[in-house]
Amino acid sequence: MAKPQISTTPIAEKKSSYRKWIESENIPLMEGFFIEDIKKVPLQPWQRKGGLGVRICLEGTGETNDAYICEIPPGKSLEPQRHLFEELIYIVSRRGATTIWNDGEPKHTFEWQEGSLFSPPLNTWHQHFNGSGSQPARYLAVTSAPIMINLIHNLDFIFNCNYAFKDRYDSQDDYFTAEGTWFAGRVWETNFVSDVKNMNLIEWKERGAGGSQVRLQLSENTLCGHVSEFPVGTYKKAHYHGPGAHV
User: Fold this and answer.
1) Torsional sign, CA 50, 52, 18, 120
2) What pTM was estimated for this model as a whole?
């Protein structure tokens, strides 16, 4: 019986499956505690996406989730994508459209603008198009890629699994146009927000200083978000939670 091999590599030097994948993407990785202006972050060509991009892994996320910034060149589209991790996409600039589909099912396209928020349903094919012929369109996405890649550590399965989660998306015609459903606790379950900057928010006195908020649940995700607003010169009560919050 062969003796077990003992690794002499320090644990701190071993890279996670997620970190190895980031290196294979050949785009910059931004780390730290904050980004001063996502509109001005320089981007580099991203072959897999077919646009420009940078990956973001901020301190405090603990590889539970991450983010990236991507730009679609003027008059162009990104490559079709499908993957076994969720994304919340916020449009930073310009207008465009996204097409969603499952294999063998009809394609559905919806338009977006600066301030729009949406999420391609899990493992659906999706493709983003820039509506401007002269200016790039930029978006920010928060994803669950780190935890999924580290858990499964098989990129072929992450990017080439053909399973359709029809309990999340079954090619409904009104998937991105329906009004959604309101639940107690200021929760709006929807699949598309046309402009988060002009949403009607609900007062939340317990949060302090006349603040208001809406919690957003999109595309049956485990990733979720919320929009909060507070009057000028007021204070939001301090709070804490687990890793992964992106503000």
Assistant:
1) negative
2) 0.91
